[in-house]
Amino acid sequence: MTVLVTGGSGLVGSHVIAALRARSIPVRALSRARGGSAVRELGAEVVEGDVTDPAAWSRAAQGVRAIVHAAALVTQRRSFEDFVDVNVGGTRLAVATARAGGLRLVYLSSVAVYGRAARSRPGSVGIAEEFPFEPLPDADFYARSKRLAEQVVHEGAEHGGFTAVSLRPNVIYGEGDRLFTPRVIRVLRWGFVPLVGGGANHLACVYAGNVATAALAALEAPSNGFKAYNVTHDAPPPLTQREFFDAFGVELGVRLRHAPVPEALARMGVGLWTGAQRLLDRDGYAGVGRSAVSFLTRDNPYVASSAARELGWRPPFDTHAAIRRSVRWYRDHGS
After folding, report:
1. Residue 168: helix, strand or coil by DSSP?
2. Closest CA to 15 of 130, 135, 173
3. Fewer Cβ atoms within 10 Å of its own Cβ: the N or the C terminal residue of the chain?
4. Chain centroid offset of residue 87 CA
5. Cα–Cα distance list, 77 to 81, 276, 282 (Å)
């Protein structure tokens, strides 16, 4: 029976559709008109509409067995009201649709719900799903809206009528990525890479194709009520920060020179940049950039053992293969 996917023209949604079609599972996508052609090319039936429109959900949900809700507003250059409207309001309608039809709901959340400054406790193995949520900065509209949206899913499933799985990836890259991957490539094309903090840590990122396989596993795994899972690494072996950027360099055909950058200097530079942004922006964009330094200097703290144990999730793509696919896509579609 058909699976309904939202955000099908986006990074994760497009990979979910491709993974479902690779298994010959019929897919219907709730998509705005401008994304419809890309979704059709992936082999999905398209129902045009917006995730904030109840009528669109009603049209799209006819005859489906499950929902993968991946649509979300990500860019910070929007108001908090916009984030709430799309990320929370759209999710509220996904929950209502799942309850009305008794459908399995897989919601694409984010590790941002833990708080971007969250650190694993001394003596712990890392940040697992039971990790307590940290306070969120007022300016972090994305994290605030994703936490609110996940609470909507949790509370809805706990009241019964449907089951829900929330997947929490960290930074996602891959084909269709318009944020992280292009920025990495633009920097590396200059032939050097700044290594912040030495470069021996493992970056907290995951390939979109691996997240998609977790979504498929969540559709099929037996569960009741609500359950959240971290989906936060590629197939082994894990690459260090230096190895990660070097792998991009190989695929780009660029011989990289490494420029060590002390962490304190990197934090000072980001602080100056975000301070300048505050003078220009009034929409919550400034201030979030500091998390980039933590991303580059910290080891990936997120533990995904529950997804492996309970969903049977085994990411099929290692990071070398993922980077190869990402660069190939960028060459064909980027600039």
Report:
1. strand
2. 173
3. C
4. 13
5. 12, 15, 9
CATH of the domain at 298: 3.40.50.720
- Which residues does residue 31 pair with via DSSP β-bridges, in sequence order? 48
Q: How far is it, in rounded angstroms, from Cα 227 to Cα 225?
A: 7
**Tens-binned pLDDT, residue by residue, of the chain (335 aa):** 899 999 999 999 999 999 999 999 999 999 988 889 999 999 999 999 999 999 999 999 999 999 999 999 997 678 999 999 999 999 999 999 999 999 999 999 999 999 977 777 666 679 999 999 999 999 999 999 999 999 999 999 999 999 999 999 999 999 999 999 998 999 899 998 888 888 899 999 999 999 999 999 999 998 889 999 999 999 999 999 999 999 999 999 999 998 888 777 666 555 443 443 443 333 333 344 456 677 888 899 999 999 999 999 999 999 999 999 999 999 998 65
Q: Which domain holds residue 8?
A: 2-333
Cα R_g (the chain), whole angstroms: 19
CB 284 within 8 Å of CB 293 = no
Strand partners, 119: none
Q: What domain count does the chain have?
A: 1
d(CA 61, CA 3): 9
End-to-end alpha carbon distance in the chain? 39
d(CA 201, CA 224) in angstroms, rounded, equals 37
* Pair 203, 172: CB distance under 8 Å: no
Indicate the residue type of 294: S
Phi, psi of 107 (to 5 degrees): -105, 130
- 46 φ, ψ (degrees, to nearest 5): -110, 130
3-class SS at 301?
coil
Spatial distance between the Cα atoms of 241 and 319, rounded to a whole number of angstroms: 12
**Which pair of structure tokens corresponds to residue 274?**
């975000």
Q: Is the pTM for the entire model greater than 0.90? A: yes
Q: Kindly tell me the burial class for residue 135, based on how many C-beta atoms sit within 10 Å of its own C-beta (0-12, 13-18, 19 or more).
A: exposed
Peptide bond into 237 cis (omega under 30): yes
